[in-house]
Specification:
The protein is α/β, with parallel strands linked by helices and 216 residues long. A hairpin with a 2-residue loop joins strand 2 and strand 3. The longest helix is centred in the C-terminal third of the chain and has 18 residues. The structure holds iron/sulfur cluster.
């Protein structure tokens, strides 16, 4: 199974046509939102780690799931490791304590959006981490850079089901040769592919030739 990028889930829920234009046709675009998004990610663009308040913070962590066929990167993953106990040390094969808790953190430039795409992308990251670490992950966080607020996202059954259903629908969509037709909708306002997609053109009536009988 060809792995899909985690970010394709986000694009697909934003607009199916956008996902197809990006991941089948290879089109990319830039607008104020993509530029602000790049700035918002500067703090987590490069791999590294630090410790804060008992958590280990792993930046730009590569993620994968062989089971789901997903690959990508988490902006940040916060982990806790097991305490070292003298009695355990002798039995450890590694001198690195095992990870007992983890939560992905997704950086976003603006406030929460009306669509559930960010939550699904975060949940997909958690599913990858669960497979990589052999842990159950109950919740993650979306960090809104503009307000410096962190919103918790619970990975409950409905969100897990929506994430898996979205992945199935994404895979089915991307094997179709043609992108779905453009449809002007609220998402188009912030879409970096608008100048290529031209959704306004979809609402323009096609010109028709006059019928011969019109030439009387
Ligand atoms: S401009 Fe609108 S229809 Fe076109 S890809 Fe973007 S969101 Fe989709």
């Amino acid at each position: 199974m060809e792995p899909l990028p985690l970010s394709a889930l986000n694009d697909f829920l934003y607009c199916e046509r956008r996902a197809h234009l990006k991941f089948v046709d290879g089109l990319r675009g830039t607008n104020e939102h993509t530029l602000l998004g790049n700035l918002a990610h500067e703090a987590v663009d490069h791999p590294g780690y630090e410790h804060r308040a008992g958590w280990e913070l792993l930046r730009a962590l590569p993620l994968y799931s062989d089971t789901l066929g997903l690959t990508g990167k988490a902006d940040l993953v916060e982990i806790r490791r097991a305490d070292f106990h003298e009695s355990e040390i002798a039995n450890l094969k590694s001198d690195i304590p095992r990870i007992v808790e983890a939560r992905p953190v997704e950086y976003k430039k603006g406030p929460a959006r009306r669509w559930s795409n960010d939550q699904v992308q975060l949940c997909a990251q958690a599913l990858c981490l669960e497979e990589m670490l052999g842990l159950r992950i109950e919740a993650g966080l979306i960090y809104h850079v503009a307000s410096a607020k962190r919103d918790e996202v619970a990975f409950d059954s409905p969100l897990r089901s929506l994430t898996l259903a979205t992945l199935d629908a994404l895979r089915a969509s991307l094997i179709r040769p043609n992108a779905p037709p453009a449809l002007l909708k609220p998402q188009c306002d912030g879409c970096s592919l608008r100048g290529i997609c031209l959704p306004e053109a979809a609402s323009v009536r096609r010109a028709v030739l006059f019928e011969p009988r019109d030439y009387t």
